[in-house]
Each structure stands twice: as C-alpha cells, then as structure tokens.
Amino acid sequence: AQKVTQAQTEISVVEKEDVTLDCVYETRDTTYYLFWYKQPPSGELVFLIRRNSFDEQNEISGRYSWNFQKSTSSFNFTITASQVVDSAVYFCALSEFTRLGLGGATNKLIFGTGTLLAVQP
Amino acid sequence: DSGVTQTPKHLITATGQRVTLRCSPRSGDLSVYWYQQSLDQGLQFLIQYYNGEERAKGNILERFSAQQFPDLHSELNLSSLELGDSALYFCASSVGRGAGDEQFFGPGTRLTVL
C-alpha cells in the first residue's frame, strides 16, 4: 500500500540554523511523483516542489533543497539559514497514477502527517 | 493566490444539519479533488472528478457526496453532520489527471460542527 511517513512531528530551530525535514515513502509502482507542500499558519497549502521517480537529481531553489534517494525511498527537504517566515507545517506527498477501468485514471495525493517547523528569532 | 476559490471560508453549524461547500477550479483545469484535514486523520483524499465524471473515491463517508458541474465548479455536500466532521476541507484542481500534474489548492473551508 502507498504510504508516506514523516517521523518528525515538530522541529524547533533558531533563525539561521539549517534544518532537514525527513520523508520516507512506500509504493509498489515504478512510476510515481513526490511533492512537498507548505502550510503556513494562515492555513492554505502552498506547492513547493514536484519530483518524478525517474529523476534522482537533487534540486536547489534558493534556500531550499531536496534530496531524493530511491535506494532508501526518501525525499528529504532542507532549509538553509532558516527564517521566521519558514515557520509552518510541511507536508510530503506521494502521487500514483492509478489506471481505472473504462479508460479512467486518478492521481490522488497521499500525504504524510506533516512536520511542524518553528523557527525562533 | 492559487486561482482556486472556495466558499464559504468558514461555516459553523449544528449536528444533524446539511451543508454545501463550493469550489471553482483554476481556469482550464478539468480535475477537481476534495481533501479533508482533521486533527485525527490528517490530510485525506476524499474524491476526484475529471471533466464532470467521478474518477476516484477515497475515505469519503456515505453521508458525503460531491458533483462537478458542466462549468467545472464542484460542490461537496455533507449531511447528517457529526462533531467529528469538523475539519478543514480543501479543494484542489489540476489540468488533467496525470500523476505528475501539480494540484493547486484552494484556501479551504473550515467547518465547525457544534
């Protein structure tokens, strides 16, 4: 069964520290996608990154970087030089393309339980 | 702003009542998804529609139903409400139904059942 595990429930750091959020996933499919979303205190879900199962290159976007390792089924997220504005709940999610009967398909997202990141000034 | 709109933003109602949550997807998006976020269950997929047709069901209760209209907006109907239905309900949309399609989330409707 598909599953996403975010073992870190809460992390507290002081501003300018680096922090890594862990994500481990389970899937039997060879084709899948992984996502990270941010949920700030205001409540909306903000897309951060998408990675497909065939692309294991690490990605860097400003202070954010992602490390995808298929060998360990992990897709970890690092924030460098954290800032107070980074305080939020971060969700890792897995999307599988599930082919249904009669030519249909679905790509529901399976979310982890989230990691609450608190960055103290 | 994701381009996905949801109304109302907040809803307070009593047990046993029925409510309707509304979602307008981004212009051009054909898929609409509903998710429920609660303290107990976390973020859970409820149901997906693609171009007016139901595509997949997740952990959606029988008391809940949804539909997608010809103009592609969607409504989630919750009936015989219970205290445990209190949650944040998100609508998301995507262009198609591919696994790699980014899902854009609306701001959510916070439902409180008293």
Notes on the structure:
The complex is a heterodimer of chains A (121) and B (114). By secondary structure, chain A is mainly β. Helix content of chain A is 0%, strand content 55%. In chain A, strands 2, 5, 6, 10, 13 and 14 form a 6-stranded mixed sheet that branches. The model of chain A has no long low-confidence stretch (mean pLDDT 91). Chain B is mainly β. Helices cover 0% and strands 53% of the residues of chain B. Chain B is built from no helices and 11 strands. Chain B has strands spanning 5-7, 10-13, 19-24, 31-38, 42-50, 53-57, 64-68, 74-78, 87-94, 104-105, 109-113. In chain B, strands 2, 4, 5, 6, 9, 10 and 11 form a 7-stranded mixed sheet that branches. Chain B has a 4-stranded antiparallel sheet with strand order 1-3-8-7, with no helix packed on it. Chain B is globular, with a radius of gyration of 13 Å. The termini of chain B are far apart. The mean pLDDT of chain B is 94. The interface between A and B is medium-sized, with 29 and 31 residues.
> Judging from the principal axes of the Cα atoms, what is the shape of chain B?
globular
Largest sheet of chain A: 6 strands, mixed
| Pattern of helices and strands of chain B | EEEEEEEEEEE
Fraction in helix of chain B: under 10%
Provide mean pLDDT of chain A, rounded. Answer: 91
Structural class of chain B: mainly beta
Q: Give the fraction of residues assigned to helices of chain A.
A: under 10%
Oligomer state of the chains in this structure: heterodimer
Q: Please tell me the overall pLDDT of chain B.
A: 94
* Largest sheet data of chain B: 7 strands, mixed
> What is the terminal-to-terminal distance of chain B?
31 Å
Give the amount of beta strand of chain B, in percent: over 45%
Q: Specify Rg of chain B, calculated over alpha carbons.
A: 13 Å
Give the termini separation of chain A: 41 Å
**Class by SSE composition of chain A:** mainly beta
Whole-angstrom Rg of chain A:
15 Å
Name the beta content range of chain A.
over 45%
Give me the count of strands of chain B.
11
Global outline of chain A: globular
What's the tally of helices of chain A? 0
